[in-house]
Automatic annotation (TrEMBL):
This is Endonuclease/Exonuclease/phosphatase. Gene3D superfamilies: Endonuclease/exonuclease/phosphatase (3.60.10.10), Jacalin-like lectin domain (2.100.10.30). Residues 309-439 form the Jacalin-type lectin domain. CDD domains: Jacalin_EEP. Residues 1-22 form the signal peptide. It comes from Pseudomassariella vexata. GO terms for molecular function: endonuclease activity; exonuclease activity; phosphatase activity; sphingomyelin phosphodiesterase activity. It comes from the Eukaryota. InterPro entries: Endo/exonu/phosph_ase_sf, IPPc, Jacalin-like_lectin_dom, Jacalin-like_lectin_dom_sf, Sph/SMPD2-like. Keywords: Endonuclease, Exonuclease, Hydrolase, Nuclease, Signal.
Length: 440
């Protein structure tokens, strides 16, 4: 079961307005840092100085260097000191100190939807007290630009090198990989955090992200010329070179909707030092710069609705179809929006949602395109759902279903584009919805 937490119970639709006419390319960077935030009485991390003071310095460094998406691990009992000196617009609420919290938090210049915390299925205390806290991973669907989303995962895997540790860590990494297979279908993905793994620890199976999810390690790609190391090379802290390997890693992939390319990798060690030159953490922070560009064949709108139900995406199927075009629209609804569907001219049909409601259909002409959709959301059983849809074609024809509310947004395909499919989350009804565009 997926336990989801959104930053707000309902985001006003006016903040998610849907013309996909924003930038079609850009860049951003990420930082991963284990901030050594275990209580000093439990773990010194071999870092000199006062941990609260160091945490405040870490937060000020986040601001000084302007990282776009930051994942931190071991952010336990000194969390407030980091946030007190940081000013990122979007930050996760802490899940608590030891032993209640996972130590995982994110700070970003971009907003997100569907923030979720997931605990590891397996942990080991063979080498250290990994089972003391609910370690695991977090997920958030980050909006880089209008209609441009990247699924971001933050993880802190089991530590140690005993057999039980490697078994637990293998399970941890596979748990994230399986989650990606379910919840990131069709999406660009970033996984970064403290894996506690190296490529030379074969039993960990750190290559699962490449083999199972199609992710690339920018360190291997940019620093190691695409060759996975077979000989262990340990880093100093601070590290004066990037050729050595740390357990803190980044993995990424693009999608048929957004292209991603890693352009820079670095250990940020010398930027994160105390005033006297001592380290702030026992881990070398890592950063990667990415460029992104919208696809010339598929794009998507922003989302409306809540983070409930099961994730679905028509993107993979649409990516295999040459010049997709809608021929029949089929919606069903009554008090709320129960289901949405579209049949393409090649016979491919996409249907999402439940079986309830009254069915309404619209057949498009051979030179007619679905160009716009209005959605309205509301709350039902304390969950945000889509209550209403109104589709408009290039000829001015309309098809509607459900019951309109006062919280609505209109999503219009870019000039020369059309709506051909959906992404979102569903169950008995339409919980969350966005639209997929293709050229006319």
């Amino acid at each position: 079961m997926k336990f989801s937490m959104r930053k707000f119970a309902m985001i006003p639709a006016g903040l998610l307005v849907g013309k996909a006419s924003a930038a079609t390319s850009g860049d951003f960077n990420v930082l991963s840092m284990n901030v050594a935030g275990l209580p000093a009485i439990l773990q010194s991390n071999e870092v000199p100085g006062d941990k609260a003071t160091n945490a405040g310095t870490i937060g000020s460094k986040f601001v000084e260097y302007g990282y776009d998406i930051i994942h931190v691990q071991e952010d336990f009992n000194y969390h407030a000191y980091i946030y007190a000196t940081d000013d990122h617009a979007y930050r996760t609420a802490t899940s608590g100190g030891v032993p209640f919290g996972s130590g995982l938090n994110s700070l970003a210049n971009f907003d997100w939807v569907d923030f979720t915390r997931v605990k590891w299925d397996v942990c080991s205390d063979a080498s250290s007290s990994d089972c003391l806290t609910p370690k695991g991973f977090t997920f958030m669907r980050t909006r880089i630009d209008d209609g441009v989303y990247v699924d971001c995962y933050n993880l802190h895997a089991d530590a140690g090198t005993e057999a039980e540790d490697e078994t637990a860590r293998n399970s941890n990494l596979e748990q994230v990989a399986s989650y990606i297979d379910t919840w990131s279908i069709g999406n660009a993905v970033l996984v970064f955090g403290d894996t506690n793994s190296r490529y030379t620890r074969v039993l960990d199976n750190i290559t699962v992200f490449a083999n199972q999810n199609g992710l690339t390690d920018p360190w291997v790609e940019l620093i190691r010329d695409g060759v996975v190391p077979t000989v262990e090379t340990l880093c100093d802290n601070p590290s004066n070179n990037t050729y050595c390997e740390t357990v803190d890693k980044v993995f990424y992939r693009g999608s048929p909707v957004v292209n991603l390319e890693a352009t820079y990798f670095n250990y940020e060690s010398t930027k994160f030092l105390q005033a006297d030159g001592n380290i702030l953490s026992d881990h070398n922070p890592i950063t990667v710069n990415f460029t992104w560009s919208s696809s010339s064949s598929l794009r998507q709108s922003n989302f409306l609705g809540g983070p409930h139900g099961t994730w679905f995406s028509d993107v993979p199927a649409l990516a295999s179809i040459s010049k997709p075009k809608a021929s029949v629209l089929t919606f069903s609804g009554a008090n709320r929006l129960d289901s949405v569907g579209v049949k393409l001219t090649d016979g491919t049909t996409f249907t999402h949602g439940g079986t309830g409601g009254n069915v309404a259909t619209l057949t498009l002409g051979s030179s007619e395109y679905w160009t716009s959709a209005k959605l309205c959301q509301g709350s039902y059983n304390d969950q945000t759902r889509n209550f209403y849809i109104l589709a408009t074609t290039s000829s001015g024809k309309t098809l509607s279903s459900g019951t309109a509310t006062s919280d609505c947004a209109t999503f219009t395909a870019p000039s020369g584009w059309q709506i051909v499919g959906f992404v979102g989350q569903d169950g008995d009804e339409m919980d969350q919805l966005a639209f997929v565009y293709a050229p006319q």
